[in-house]
Amino acid sequence: MIITKLAADTDHQKLLQSVGCTKEGAKIMQGKMQTHLFYIKDLRTPAANILKQDALSIGAELAVEKDTILCKDKTVNALLMANEKQLRILSKKELAQPFGLKAVAMALKEYFQTLEYKPRIMGVLNANDDSFYHDSRMQEKNASIMIEQMIEEGADIIDIGAVSSRPGASAVSEEEEFLRIKQIVDLIYLGKYAEHVRFSLDSYAIKPLSYALDKGFSIVNDITGLRSDEVARLAASYQATVVIMHMQGTPQTMQQNPHYEDVIEEVTLFFKDRIAKADAYGIEEVILDIGLGFGKSLEHNLTLLKHLGHFKHLGKELLVGASRKSMIDMIQPTPVSQRLPATLALHLKALQEGASILRVHDVKAHQQVLSIYQALQEVGI
């Protein structure tokens, strides 16, 4: 007899097939194969006592402070530990319970109804001279070469920017931004490059966005997260996809002592608000970007990345862009030119936690990582 401990992320379906399990049996057992953790803040104390008993009755667990049973406090924080099958049972049970447990049930239900998306790479090119990574800068004379190289290396999307959004970057007028991107957009249009990859404009200014969308761009990458009604209206009129990014403050102020009471909760509320706005304007496809480095400390960045899977319950694709960012330098002092290995580590973690789009400067290296990651995901036993 040989006993082998398997990785937690082993393909459950293939694993069950390998022992001869029927399709029906595999469907039942798959939901038992991974434990999920949910931190519940400010749960009403009577609700906590009910939820604990219901959890224990089906083999799950709810951790609370020892005096919860006495109902001394109005609310408590709790940690729910359950597999998918148990979550499904709890989400049905709690619908009929009082003290706000119906809301808990509805929230839990969202977490096992998330969609899976095929991982993709968004390459970054900048039509300006002040972006923080020199090698991403392009001029009209080398734009075709850089775009064709990204396509050849495996980019699925190419994101063009003309205004630096690095911390402390100078503001640029809408007209100046338009002049910077016009010839590049024309080149992309005349070269029919949009037949090979999707193009995104990293902007929240109407004139550049209107021009790019009219010339075949199909994604609006908005670091203000649809703050502008005009941008929302424009994107909807072109049936464009919108990347909603979270940012606290502006590029000029965002890194001046950023503060959150609960960064995950506050980013979640922001996303819910802006998704509702996108829906109201008729925007059909939304991608969410947690905005690493945009009004966040190192701890905020790492917390959001580590718990990225939380945002999957919002039902949208998740984009992560950690490419060569200063958060790497905060962990281990490293020049921008030498941050690729750390970037790959951060982006691999993002993939593992549910990101499906990686915004990168180094397409070829990320395509290799993606190939290995997908091969590992497909391995059974």
Please characterize this protein's 3D structure.
The protein is an alpha/beta fold. It has two domains: 37-111, no CATH class; 120-378, TIM Barrel (Alpha-Beta Barrel), CATH 3.20.20. 42% of the residues lie in helices and 16% in strands. The protein has 14 helices and eleven strands. It has an eight-stranded parallel β-barrel with strand order 4-5-6-7-8-9-10-11, surrounded by five helices. It is globular.
Give a short overview.
The protein has helices at 12-18, 23-30, 45-57, 84-93, 101-111, 140-153, 174-190, 206-214, 229-237, 263-281, 298-306, 326-331, 340-352, 363-378; strands spanning 35-44, 61-63, 75-83, 120-126, 157-161, 198-202, 219-222, 241-245, 286-289, 317-320, 357-360.
